[in-house]
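Iron complex transport system permease protein, pasting as requested.
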Amino acid sequence: MRPDAATARSVPAPIGRLRRLRALWLLLVAAALLVLVALSVAIGTRDVGLSDIASALGGKVETIGEAAVAMRIPRTVLALLAGAALGLAGAIMQGVTRNPLADPGILGVNMGASLAVVVGVAWFHIETAHAYIVTAILGAGAAAIFVYVIGSLGRGGATPLKLALAGAATSIAFSSLVIAIVLPRADIAGGVRAWQIGGVGGATFERIFPVLPFLAAGFVVSLLSARKLNALALGDELAAGLGEHVATTRAVAAFGAILLCGATTAVCGPIGFLGLVVPHLARLLTGSDHRWLLPFSALGGACLLIAADIVGRIVARPAELDVGIVTALVGAPVFIWIVRHQRVRDL
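Structure tokens follow.
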């Protein structure tokens, strides 16, 4: 065999091994998710037996143990959906802005959705699930546009540092506005404060069903943006030279992330740092190819939020810690590590 022919045949081998390795990691993460789902159903503030779990899965709620398991099932489903949505949204935002610090919480998107919901409850008396969801999505979109415009001002346009600073300032300002609106309203203060922490406790399928179409649309739009985000990672000029409409690509991908963030915030409240941590962990396994990064981020986000919910149930028995507190405890050190080391630059 000629040397050039042997070389040509050997070139695809590393690519094939990389794909197999990524597929293996994807299967392992999916398996870990299944294990966490089972643990989430089995573990809580009350100990239950296998018979209680089997009966509850069959629809029985005759004993206290069966009732406890029956309450954990929708809670687990909501944690899975919300974690996948926030993990995927974080990866999209980091790809759109080419900013390793991008996150729905840090960029002010979650707090924009929160402010919109609080204004809707306090001033317009919204009550239905669809009103909550639509209001949160509109608030998330308005916050994203506001932060991008502010971060684009001045020399150099929307740099990663300016976007992060604009998002942090916007989050603080919106949080202060939420407090200012809620303080004089004793009739809504308790519910809003509990919701503002961010959690999946008290989930029911009646709360989950209205948000499913919005999450499905967000997942589809986001996952279909993978190839275009790979082009954006090369830089705006090169992406435009390859035939991509840079502004349209950014807008469509950001719309998918806004749908996911707004819908999740409407149901769970603002849950921070998950969209920051998960994409970085996913890159360690799969690299920067968004065709793999986005599914990994969705599965990883679901795993992390379910794990955080399990930890929150057992560390303070018989009370519970909401997942928003647990993810903040996990995410804050990771945020500091990213800022100090800046090792993830290949966005």
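Note for the archive: Residues 1-11, 343-347 have pLDDT under 50 and may be disordered.
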